[in-house]
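Researcher: For the record, we're logging two predictions in this thread. I'll number them. Prediction 1 follows.
Model: Prediction 1, sequence and structure:
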Amino acid sequence: MKASDEAEFTEFAAAMIRRLRRTAYLMCGDWHRAEDAAQDALVKVYRRWNRIDRTHGLNSYAHQCLVTSVFDQSRKPWRRERLVDADDRAGVLADPAGSIDDRMFVVEALAALPPSQRACVVLRHYGDLSLEQTAAVLGIGVGGVKSQTSRALTRLRELLDQTERSAP
Protein backbone atom coordinates (compact mmCIF):
# COMPACT_ATOMS: atom_id res chain seq x y z
CA MET A 1 0.00 0.00 0.00
CA LYS A 2 1.28 3.47 -0.86
CA ALA A 3 2.13 5.89 1.93
CA SER A 4 -0.68 8.22 0.85
CA ASP A 5 -3.19 5.35 0.99
CA GLU A 6 -1.84 4.33 4.39
CA ALA A 7 -2.33 7.87 5.71
CA GLU A 8 -5.81 8.05 4.20
CA PHE A 9 -6.82 4.75 5.82
CA THR A 10 -5.39 5.83 9.18
CA GLU A 11 -7.45 9.02 9.02
CA PHE A 12 -10.59 7.07 8.09
CA ALA A 13 -10.03 4.51 10.87
CA ALA A 14 -9.49 7.20 13.49
CA ALA A 15 -12.68 8.97 12.41
CA MET A 16 -14.81 5.79 12.28
CA ILE A 17 -13.64 3.63 15.20
CA ARG A 18 -15.89 5.20 17.84
CA ARG A 19 -18.97 5.09 15.61
CA LEU A 20 -18.30 1.47 14.64
CA ARG A 21 -17.67 0.49 18.27
CA ARG A 22 -20.93 2.11 19.45
CA THR A 23 -22.91 0.52 16.65
CA ALA A 24 -21.42 -2.88 17.46
CA TYR A 25 -22.21 -2.40 21.16
CA LEU A 26 -25.85 -1.73 20.37
CA MET A 27 -25.90 -4.88 18.26
CA CYS A 28 -24.20 -7.21 20.76
CA GLY A 29 -24.54 -5.54 24.18
CA ASP A 30 -20.91 -6.13 25.20
CA TRP A 31 -18.17 -3.49 24.96
CA HIS A 32 -15.39 -6.07 24.61
CA ARG A 33 -17.12 -7.82 21.73
CA ALA A 34 -17.95 -4.44 20.21
CA GLU A 35 -14.28 -3.44 20.30
CA ASP A 36 -13.29 -6.73 18.66
CA ALA A 37 -15.97 -6.36 15.97
CA ALA A 38 -14.98 -2.77 15.19
CA GLN A 39 -11.33 -3.76 14.87
CA ASP A 40 -12.22 -6.77 12.72
CA ALA A 41 -14.28 -4.50 10.46
CA LEU A 42 -11.40 -2.07 10.06
CA VAL A 43 -9.03 -4.92 9.24
CA LYS A 44 -11.41 -6.05 6.48
CA VAL A 45 -11.62 -2.48 5.15
CA TYR A 46 -7.82 -2.19 5.22
CA ARG A 47 -7.42 -5.39 3.21
CA ARG A 48 -9.70 -4.06 0.46
CA TRP A 49 -8.70 -0.40 0.71
CA ASN A 50 -7.39 -0.16 -2.86
CA ARG A 51 -10.56 -1.73 -4.32
CA ILE A 52 -13.23 0.20 -2.38
CA ASP A 53 -15.03 3.13 -3.98
CA ARG A 54 -14.01 5.76 -1.45
CA THR A 55 -16.31 8.43 -2.79
CA HIS A 56 -19.60 6.65 -2.06
CA GLY A 57 -19.24 3.18 -0.60
CA LEU A 58 -16.66 3.44 2.18
CA ASN A 59 -18.96 3.97 5.17
CA SER A 60 -21.43 1.39 3.88
CA TYR A 61 -18.69 -1.14 3.34
CA ALA A 62 -17.31 -0.51 6.85
CA HIS A 63 -20.77 -1.03 8.35
CA GLN A 64 -21.27 -4.17 6.27
CA CYS A 65 -17.98 -5.54 7.62
CA LEU A 66 -19.05 -4.60 11.14
CA VAL A 67 -22.41 -6.39 10.90
CA THR A 68 -20.69 -9.47 9.50
CA SER A 69 -18.15 -9.41 12.34
CA VAL A 70 -20.85 -9.10 15.01
CA PHE A 71 -22.86 -11.95 13.48
CA ASP A 72 -19.74 -14.12 13.09
CA GLN A 73 -18.80 -13.53 16.73
CA SER A 74 -22.24 -14.55 17.94
CA ARG A 75 -21.90 -17.89 16.13
CA LYS A 76 -18.72 -18.83 17.99
CA PRO A 77 -19.54 -21.23 20.84
CA TRP A 78 -17.47 -19.40 23.46
CA ARG A 79 -19.28 -16.13 22.66
CA ARG A 80 -22.79 -17.41 23.31
CA GLU A 81 -22.58 -17.02 27.05
CA ARG A 82 -23.49 -13.67 28.51
CA LEU A 83 -20.64 -12.47 30.71
CA VAL A 84 -22.42 -9.61 32.46
CA ASP A 85 -25.64 -10.08 34.37
CA ALA A 86 -27.87 -7.73 36.35
CA ASP A 87 -26.04 -8.47 39.63
CA ASP A 88 -22.76 -7.24 38.14
CA ARG A 89 -24.33 -3.83 37.47
CA ALA A 90 -25.37 -3.39 41.10
CA GLY A 91 -22.07 -1.67 41.86
CA VAL A 92 -22.65 1.04 39.23
CA LEU A 93 -23.35 4.45 40.76
CA ALA A 94 -26.95 5.56 40.41
CA ASP A 95 -27.60 8.35 37.95
CA PRO A 96 -29.85 10.98 39.55
CA ALA A 97 -31.61 11.66 36.26
CA GLY A 98 -32.01 7.97 35.50
CA SER A 99 -30.45 8.32 32.06
CA ILE A 100 -27.95 5.52 32.65
CA ASP A 101 -30.77 3.21 33.73
CA ASP A 102 -32.79 4.18 30.67
CA ARG A 103 -29.86 3.41 28.38
CA MET A 104 -29.32 0.05 30.04
CA PHE A 105 -33.01 -0.81 29.59
CA VAL A 106 -32.76 0.02 25.89
CA VAL A 107 -29.56 -2.03 25.49
CA GLU A 108 -31.17 -4.98 27.29
CA ALA A 109 -34.28 -4.68 25.13
CA LEU A 110 -32.12 -4.59 22.00
CA ALA A 111 -30.31 -7.72 23.19
CA ALA A 112 -33.66 -9.52 23.39
CA LEU A 113 -34.28 -9.01 19.66
CA PRO A 114 -33.17 -11.51 17.02
CA PRO A 115 -29.85 -10.45 15.43
CA SER A 116 -31.34 -9.39 12.08
CA GLN A 117 -34.00 -7.20 13.70
CA ARG A 118 -31.44 -5.70 16.07
CA ALA A 119 -29.15 -4.92 13.13
CA CYS A 120 -31.98 -3.20 11.23
CA VAL A 121 -32.95 -1.00 14.17
CA VAL A 122 -29.37 -0.09 15.04
CA LEU A 123 -28.35 0.71 11.47
CA ARG A 124 -31.54 2.63 10.67
CA HIS A 125 -32.08 4.56 13.89
CA TYR A 126 -28.64 4.80 15.46
CA GLY A 127 -26.43 4.59 12.40
CA ASP A 128 -28.86 6.84 10.51
CA LEU A 129 -28.55 4.78 7.33
CA SER A 130 -31.26 4.96 4.70
CA LEU A 131 -33.44 1.97 3.84
CA GLU A 132 -31.34 1.32 0.74
CA GLN A 133 -28.04 1.59 2.62
CA THR A 134 -29.27 -0.72 5.38
CA ALA A 135 -30.48 -3.22 2.80
CA ALA A 136 -27.10 -3.14 1.06
CA VAL A 137 -25.20 -3.57 4.35
CA LEU A 138 -27.34 -6.52 5.44
CA GLY A 139 -27.66 -8.06 1.99
CA ILE A 140 -31.46 -8.11 2.06
CA GLY A 141 -34.17 -6.23 0.18
CA VAL A 142 -35.65 -2.89 1.17
CA GLY A 143 -38.93 -4.64 2.02
CA GLY A 144 -37.04 -6.95 4.35
CA VAL A 145 -35.50 -3.98 6.14
CA LYS A 146 -38.93 -2.38 6.52
CA SER A 147 -40.58 -5.50 7.91
CA GLN A 148 -37.66 -6.39 10.21
CA THR A 149 -37.53 -2.83 11.54
CA SER A 150 -41.28 -2.71 12.07
CA ARG A 151 -41.30 -6.01 13.98
CA ALA A 152 -38.28 -4.94 16.01
CA LEU A 153 -39.79 -1.59 17.01
CA THR A 154 -43.04 -3.27 18.01
CA ARG A 155 -41.13 -5.75 20.18
CA LEU A 156 -38.96 -2.98 21.66
CA ARG A 157 -42.06 -1.04 22.65
CA GLU A 158 -43.46 -4.14 24.37
CA LEU A 159 -40.22 -4.81 26.20
CA LEU A 160 -39.76 -1.22 27.30
CA ASP A 161 -43.41 -0.99 28.42
CA GLN A 162 -42.87 -4.08 30.58
CA THR A 163 -39.73 -2.53 32.05
CA GLU A 164 -41.58 0.72 32.74
CA ARG A 165 -44.42 -1.12 34.52
CA SER A 166 -42.02 -3.15 36.65
CA ALA A 167 -39.93 -0.09 37.70
CA PRO A 168 -40.55 1.12 41.26
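Researcher: Logged. Prediction 2.
Model: Prediction 2, sequence and structure:
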Amino acid sequence: MDPVIQEEKTGCGIASCAAITGLSYPAAKAIANRIGIFAEDSSLWSDTAYIRQLLGELNIETGTEEEPFTTWDALPDLALLAIKWREVDGVPFWHWTVFVREGEKSWVLDSKKALKTHRRSDFGRIKPKWYIPVNRRERDQP
Protein backbone atom coordinates (compact mmCIF):
# COMPACT_ATOMS: atom_id res chain seq x y z
CA MET A 1 0.00 0.00 0.00
CA ASP A 2 1.42 3.36 -1.03
CA PRO A 3 0.87 6.81 0.43
CA VAL A 4 -1.27 9.34 -1.41
CA ILE A 5 -0.51 13.02 -0.84
CA GLN A 6 -3.43 15.32 -0.07
CA GLU A 7 -3.82 18.17 -2.53
CA GLU A 8 -5.85 20.42 -0.23
CA LYS A 9 -5.21 21.40 3.38
CA THR A 10 -8.30 19.46 4.47
CA GLY A 11 -7.90 16.54 2.05
CA CYS A 12 -6.41 14.01 4.47
CA GLY A 13 -9.60 11.89 4.59
CA ILE A 14 -9.83 11.72 0.80
CA ALA A 15 -6.10 10.90 0.56
CA SER A 16 -6.48 8.15 3.18
CA CYS A 17 -9.34 6.58 1.21
CA ALA A 18 -7.29 6.83 -1.97
CA ALA A 19 -4.36 5.04 -0.32
CA ILE A 20 -6.58 2.24 1.00
CA THR A 21 -8.17 1.65 -2.41
CA GLY A 22 -5.13 2.27 -4.63
CA LEU A 23 -6.71 5.28 -6.33
CA SER A 24 -5.01 8.55 -7.14
CA TYR A 25 -6.00 11.62 -5.14
CA PRO A 26 -7.84 13.19 -8.12
CA ALA A 27 -9.79 9.97 -8.75
CA ALA A 28 -10.83 9.63 -5.10
CA LYS A 29 -11.68 13.33 -4.95
CA ALA A 30 -13.90 13.05 -8.02
CA ILE A 31 -15.84 10.19 -6.43
CA ALA A 32 -16.07 12.07 -3.12
CA ASN A 33 -17.36 15.19 -4.89
CA ARG A 34 -19.92 13.13 -6.82
CA ILE A 35 -21.44 11.93 -3.52
CA GLY A 36 -21.33 15.36 -1.89
CA ILE A 37 -18.03 15.18 0.00
CA PHE A 38 -15.66 18.11 -0.52
CA ALA A 39 -12.16 18.63 0.89
CA GLU A 40 -13.03 22.26 1.62
CA ASP A 41 -15.59 21.11 4.22
CA SER A 42 -13.85 21.31 7.61
CA SER A 43 -16.29 18.73 9.01
CA LEU A 44 -14.14 16.12 7.26
CA TRP A 45 -11.83 16.68 10.26
CA SER A 46 -14.55 16.32 12.86
CA ASP A 47 -17.02 13.69 11.67
CA THR A 48 -16.34 10.05 10.80
CA ALA A 49 -19.47 9.63 8.65
CA TYR A 50 -17.84 11.17 5.59
CA ILE A 51 -14.87 8.85 5.46
CA ARG A 52 -17.11 5.82 6.06
CA GLN A 53 -19.45 7.03 3.31
CA LEU A 54 -16.59 7.46 0.84
CA LEU A 55 -15.07 4.07 1.63
CA GLY A 56 -18.54 2.52 1.36
CA GLU A 57 -18.91 4.09 -2.07
CA LEU A 58 -15.54 2.53 -2.93
CA ASN A 59 -16.92 -0.82 -1.69
CA ILE A 60 -14.60 -1.02 1.34
CA GLU A 61 -15.96 -2.17 4.69
CA THR A 62 -15.09 -0.33 7.91
CA GLY A 63 -15.85 -0.89 11.55
CA THR A 64 -19.01 0.80 12.77
CA GLU A 65 -17.42 2.38 15.86
CA GLU A 66 -14.29 4.33 16.68
CA GLU A 67 -12.02 2.23 18.87
CA PRO A 68 -9.76 3.90 21.45
CA PHE A 69 -6.06 3.60 20.71
CA THR A 70 -4.22 1.58 23.35
CA THR A 71 -1.01 0.25 21.76
CA TRP A 72 0.43 -0.12 18.28
CA ASP A 73 0.42 -3.91 18.65
CA ALA A 74 -3.32 -3.89 19.44
CA LEU A 75 -4.24 -2.23 16.14
CA PRO A 76 -5.74 -4.34 13.35
CA ASP A 77 -3.66 -4.86 10.20
CA LEU A 78 -5.42 -1.95 8.48
CA ALA A 79 -7.03 1.03 10.18
CA LEU A 80 -7.91 4.67 9.72
CA LEU A 81 -6.02 6.42 12.47
CA ALA A 82 -7.01 9.76 14.03
CA ILE A 83 -3.91 11.74 15.02
CA LYS A 84 -3.30 15.35 16.03
CA TRP A 85 -6.65 15.23 17.86
CA ARG A 86 -7.74 18.52 19.42
CA GLU A 87 -10.85 20.52 20.31
CA VAL A 88 -11.63 23.96 18.91
CA ASP A 89 -14.61 25.69 20.53
CA GLY A 90 -15.86 22.32 21.75
CA VAL A 91 -15.63 20.68 18.30
CA PRO A 92 -13.13 17.81 17.89
CA PHE A 93 -10.71 17.90 14.96
CA TRP A 94 -8.04 15.44 13.83
CA HIS A 95 -5.80 14.42 10.95
CA TRP A 96 -6.62 11.17 9.13
CA THR A 97 -3.82 8.67 8.49
CA VAL A 98 -3.73 4.98 7.58
CA PHE A 99 -2.09 2.33 9.75
CA VAL A 100 -0.79 -0.69 7.81
CA ARG A 101 0.69 -3.94 9.08
CA GLU A 102 2.09 -6.51 6.68
CA GLY A 103 3.79 -9.45 8.32
CA GLU A 104 6.27 -8.19 10.91
CA LYS A 105 6.41 -4.65 9.49
CA SER A 106 4.03 -1.79 10.18
CA TRP A 107 3.86 1.88 9.28
CA VAL A 108 1.55 4.87 9.07
CA LEU A 109 0.71 6.47 5.73
CA ASP A 110 0.50 10.21 6.34
CA SER A 111 -0.78 12.35 3.47
CA LYS A 112 0.49 15.71 4.77
CA LYS A 113 2.25 17.38 1.83
CA ALA A 114 5.03 19.02 3.91
CA LEU A 115 6.44 15.75 5.27
CA LYS A 116 9.80 14.46 4.01
CA THR A 117 8.49 10.91 4.07
CA HIS A 118 4.86 9.83 3.96
CA ARG A 119 5.48 6.26 5.11
CA ARG A 120 6.12 6.81 8.81
CA SER A 121 7.49 4.43 11.41
CA ASP A 122 8.32 7.04 14.06
CA PHE A 123 5.59 5.70 16.31
CA GLY A 124 6.87 7.53 19.40
CA ARG A 125 6.08 10.87 17.71
CA ILE A 126 2.62 9.90 16.44
CA LYS A 127 -0.09 10.34 19.06
CA PRO A 128 -3.25 8.46 17.96
CA LYS A 129 -6.52 9.13 19.76
CA TRP A 130 -8.61 6.36 18.21
CA TYR A 131 -8.99 4.29 15.04
CA ILE A 132 -11.55 2.74 12.71
CA PRO A 133 -10.82 -0.84 11.59
CA VAL A 134 -10.80 -1.32 7.81
CA ASN A 135 -11.44 -4.63 6.09
CA ARG A 136 -9.00 -5.24 3.21
CA ARG A 137 -11.69 -7.17 1.35
CA GLU A 138 -14.46 -5.43 -0.46
CA ARG A 139 -17.79 -5.50 1.30
CA ASP A 140 -20.56 -7.72 -0.03
CA GLN A 141 -22.81 -6.11 -2.57
CA PRO A 142 -26.53 -6.02 -1.70
